[in-house]
Amino acid sequence: MSDTADVRGILAQYRASIDNIDAALIHMLAERFRCTQAVGVLKAAHGLPPADPAREAQQIERLRRLAQEAQLDPDFAEKFLNFVIREVIRHHEQIAAGNGATAPGAEGASTNG
Predict the structure, then answer these.
(1) Phi and psi at residue 72, in whole multiples of 5°?
(2) CB-based burial of residue 92 (10 Å sphere; 0-12 exposed, 13-18 middle, 19+ buried)?
(3) Sign of the torsion formed by the C-alpha atoms of 83, 33, 69 and 54
(4) Distance between CA 30 and CA 36 in Å, rounded?
(5) Cα separation of 88 and 54, whole Å?
(6) Domain residues for 44?
(7) Residue at 86 is within a domain
(8) How many domains does the chain have?
(9) What is the pTM of this model?
(10) Angle at 25 (CA atoms; ends 14, 62), nearest 5 degrees
């Protein structure tokens, strides 16, 4: 087998692993957003604000620490979490305005968690 074929085989293995990781990330994000939608319904049902700056700051600090432990750039982790937080808040605002979907399992219930 030539060096080029060896490299292509190794590259294909890495890419297959990357594809698997990407699929897992998408499924994890979907599950995370199902949970945050339920939080949005609960907040809206109890008149709580869509954003929770204290919780967000705690989460950013926690994820930066986890990123360092995992040898991932903490700045990247913070940027990623900030992106997710903005999207969650947008969903919570829609739910509070009455434009959001009911969280899974919340049919007929006034709250969900």
Answers:
(1) -110, 145
(2) buried
(3) positive
(4) 10
(5) 15
(6) 29-96
(7) yes
(8) 1
(9) 0.76
(10) 115
CB of 112 closer than 8 Å to CB of 103: yes
- Residue 113 belongs to some domain of the structure: no
The pLDDT value recorded for residue 75 is: 98
Per-residue pLDDT of the chain (113 residues; tens, 9 = 90+): 589 999 999 999 999 999 999 999 999 999 999 999 999 999 999 999 999 999 999 999 999 999 999 999 999 999 999 999 999 999 999 999 986 555 444 433 333 33
Whether 73 contacts 8, CB under 8 Å: no
- Give residue 104's identity as a one-letter amino acid code: P
Q: Which CATH number characterizes residue 75's domain? A: 1.20.59.10
Is position 21 within any domain?
no
pLDDT confidence of residue 2: 80
Nearest to 95, CA basis, from 106, 82, 84: 106
Dist CA 11 CA 7 (whole Å): 6
The C-alpha torsion from 97 through 55 and 37 to 23, rounded to 10°, is: 140
The single residue listed with the structure tokens 């903005």 is 86
